[in-house]
Amino acid sequence: MHELSIAQSIIKIVTQDMPKHNLTKVDSITLRIGEITQIMPDALLFGFECLSKDTSLDGTKLIIETVPVKGHCKTCGQDFVFEDWPHGCPECGQTDIRIISGRELEIVEFEGS
Ligand SMILES: [Zn+2]
Fold it and tell me: What are the structural domains, with CATH classification, of the chain?
């Protein structure tokens, strides 16, 4: 399961970083996830909850911000949000499109004490 291994890496990264920020406990972790990654937020939340049990992240809240898929049409120069990925440019219908955003999978911040 894709989400489970992501949850695992989030726990690893944050746990390793905690001493650098003098944290003994983390209240929340904010993630930014692009829609193109096809990660299911619910599955990720569930995986995180399971894997964080009995670690120093037990009880930490995972906040997920989803990023819409945005494209730039190389034919007409239009920037747009994909309503229903994957599709062509809504202006001219061409499919020569560069993805501007939507691939994100990153930890924005984490807070604790
Ligand atoms: Zn276009």
Answer: 2-68+102-112 (3.30.2320.50)
